[in-house]
Amino acid sequence: MAATKHAAVPSLIKAVRITQYGGSEQLKYEEAPLPEIGPGHVLAKVRYAGVNPIDWKIREGHMKQVLPASFPLTLGQDFAGEIVTVAGDSGRFRTGERVFGFGAGTYADFTAAAIADIAAIPEKIEFAVAAALPTAGLTALQAIRDHVQPTPGTRILIHGAAGAVGSFATQIAKRWGAQVIGTASGEDIVYLRSLGHVQVVDYKHEQFETVGQVDAVLDLIGGETATRSFALVKKGGVLVSTVGGAKAELAAQAGIRGVNVVMKRSAADLSELAGLVERGDVKPRMGEVFRLEQAREAQDASQQGRAKGKILLKVV
User: Fold this and answer.
1) What pTM did the predictor assign?
2) 20 to 30 A Cα–Cα from 169, which one of 3, 58, 157, 162?
3) 96: left (phi over 0), alpha (psi -120 to 50) or beta
C-alpha cells in the first residue's frame, strides 16, 4: 500500500549534518533532502531532539567500528514529534499522532523512524519531556529492571546519580523500594536530595567506600570509580556498568556478577517509561534547550560536562 502523505511535507528540510569526523565545528545547519521511509517506518515531524553523549562520540568517529557512517550524516537519535507520513503497514500509528523514541538523524525538521522504535506520547506529557526520555531513560530502566532487579530494601550505590541516566535510575530504583545511595557533587547534591530518601555521597569530599556493603552498584562513570566499587558489593550481588566498567575478572574475584549493559531500543520499554512519567513516579531532569541551529553549542555543553539535566534541541 502506498504511504499516506501529509500535504505540508517539503522536499527539502533543515538538518544538522557532518561531512567528516571531527570536532563540533563539523556540525553544519543546512538544507537536506526529506528522509525516505520504507516498510515498517513512519516519517515524523520533529518538535524536540534529545542530545546524548553518543551523538558527539559518533561525530568524532569513536563509534565508526560499530556504527559506520556514510556522509553527509545527520546527527541525533532521540526525538518527540508527530507522524506526518505513514506507510501502509504502520499498524497502530496514524497521521497526526504524537510519538517519541528513536529516529534516524533527529537533528532535523523531519526524521524517519521504525515503528518498533517509537511509542505514543501520553496526553499529559509535553513534547519536550517526551524527547528527554528515550536514550537515557531506557538505559536506566533496562539496567535497573533487568539487571539490578531491586526489591524493597535493596541497597544500591549509583555513581553519577544526578546525571542523565543516573537521575532516571535513582527514581526507578526508588519506585521499586530500593535504598539508593548516590554519588554527586555541587548543585547535583541539592537535586538528589530534592528527590527524597536518597543518601548522597559528595565524592569530592568523602570516599564512597564509607557507605559500607551494598547489594548492587550501578556504574555510570567507569575507570577507577568502577574498579574501587567491586569490593563494596556483597557476595552474590551485582555491578552493572553502562560504560564498560564491569570487568569479568574483577567480578569473579569478588564473587559477584558483572554486567556491561548497552541500551536496546524497545517500543514496549518506551511505553513503560512514559507510564512512569505520566503517573508522576519518574520526572526527567530537564536541562538547557537550544535551537536546532545551535547544535554545536548543545553538543559542546554535553561533551564538556556542563549539562545540568537533559539537553534538548527545539526544532520548531
Assistant:
1) 0.95
2) 58
3) left
- The 3-state secondary structure of 244-275 reads CCCCHHHHHHHCCEEEECCCCCCHHHHHHHHH
Share of the chain above pLDDT 90, in %: 91
Give Cα separations from 36 to 17, 32, 44, 113, 276 (angstroms). Answer: 17, 12, 11, 10, 33
Report pLDDT digits (tens) over 160-208: 999 999 999 999 999 999 999 999 999 999 999 999 999 999 999 999 9
DSSP 8-state secondary structure symbol assigned to residue 103: -
Nearest partner of 186 among 217, 219, 162, judged by Cα: 162
Q: What residue type is 43 in one-letter code?
A: L
pLDDT tens-place string over residues 113-156: 999 999 999 999 999 999 999 999 999 999 999 999 999 999 99
End-to-end CA distance of the chain: 31
What is the set of domains in the chain, with CATH numbers? 4-133+284-314 (3.90.180.10), 136-260 (3.40.50.720)
